[in-house]
Design a protein that fits this description.
Layout (H helix, E strand, L loop, with lengths): L1 H22 L2 H18 L1 H14 L6 H24 L5 H7 E4 L1 H9 L4 E5 L5 H12 L2 E5 L5 H12 L4 E4 L3 H10 L3 E5 L9 E6 L2 E6 L1 H9 L2 E9 L5 E5 L11 H22 L17 H4 L6
Parallel strand pairs: 1-9, 2-5, 2-8, 3-4, 3-5
Antiparallel strand pairs: 6-7, 8-9
Length: 307
């Protein structure tokens, strides 16, 4: 009972904070979030070490301390930017959204949709993913998006409503595959973020950013089964809170008699695409995640943030 009451209290406080932030003048709200990002950089020492460990692994200790520091600071800015954008999108107009977000190579999507091809969008925790999601669902076509369920049902419901307001269809990770299969059967579009670590049971080993890593095989399985086109997409933060979505060349469906090799091949093509996106502007990727712990656990064990 006490836990329930505490959760209700926290949720009410959460709604009050969201209400206050929505009513703030934009420049004050954005200054507030920049301050929160700065505090994150100053106090989250363990996370800073994870970022540094990832960067040193991928770039083989070639980055200067100043460049690592810049990427650490930007990581916190980008994290709070996702929250800021989710709040601002509750009140954004279509006109303002079109003035804020541009899209490159949109014709790739339009062509495949006209041909009634099943589409799987793959992306990473890169740039302002909230703006990309909102724009896609509002102006292109609605997509099924997989979300990670938290231990706080009320806040989950708030986040789902906020995202579904743009037309998105949110599916929780547990039991998501069944829903995604149904979507593919109806030739609808699904969106998966595939850049986080997974265990060998749920994924395939790939070369990612030049290093060994495990990657979820869900998108590869769906693509092979339904002949879906896998389209890498990314959103790049630009100056003055502007954003550019880039659509990349699709990964064409692969299906031979060797399912294991097909899945391995598709997964590697996906990893190549995401790696190339990250290297376009490395600071915009989510470096705080322990992406390489399945194969390089020791780089995280050298620092206090050992989960």
């Amino acid at each position: 009972y006490k836990d329930l009451m505490m959760k209700k209290l926290v949720y009410r406080l959460f709604l009050i904070v969201v209400f206050i932030l929505r009513k703030m003048p934009r420049f004050i709200r954005r200054s507030f979030f920049r301050f929160i990002a700065y505090l994150g950089y100053v106090f989250a020492k363990k996370t800073n070490k994870v970022i540094e460990a990832n960067l040193n692994l991928v770039f083989e200790n070639s980055l200067s301390k100043d460049e690592i520091k810049e990427i650490q600071k930007y990581s916190y800015f980008n994290m709070v930017l996702w929250v800021q954008s989710m709040i601002e999108n509750l009140d954004v107009s279509e006109k303002e959204l079109k003035e804020t977000v541009t899209i490159e190579n949109e014709e790739i999507l339009i062509k495949l949709r006209k041909e009634n091809k099943p589409i799987i969008l793959i992306s990473a925790h890169y740039g302002n993913i909230e703006m990309m999601s909102y724009y896609f669902n509002k102006f292109l076509f609605p997509v099924y998006q997989v979300a990670r369920e938290s231990n706080f049902n009320e806040i989950d419901e708030f986040l789902i409503k906020a995202r579904e307001a743009s037309g998105s269809k949110i599916v929780f990770k547990s039991g998501a595959l069944k829903t995604l299969v149904k979507a593919m059967m109806k030739k609808e579009s699904v969106s998966l973020i595939i850049d986080q670590n997974t265990n060998s049971k749920d994924g395939k080993e790939v070369e990612f950013l030049g290093k060994r890593a495990n990657q979820t095989s869900s998108s590869a399985l769906l693509a092979r089964k339904f002949g879906a086109y896998i389209i890498p997409i990314a959103v790049f933060n630009q100056d003055d809170y502007k954003y550019k979505i880039k659509v990349y060349e699709p990964i064409i469906p692969i299906k031979t008699d060797n399912e294991i090799e097909d899945l391995k091949h598709i997964s590697q093509l996906e990893a190549n695409a995401i790696s190339d996106i990250i290297l376009e502007d490395k600071k915009q990727w989510f470096w705080p995640h322990k992406r390489f712990k399945s194969h390089y656990r020791e780089i995280y064990e050298k620092n206090p943030n050992n989960k």
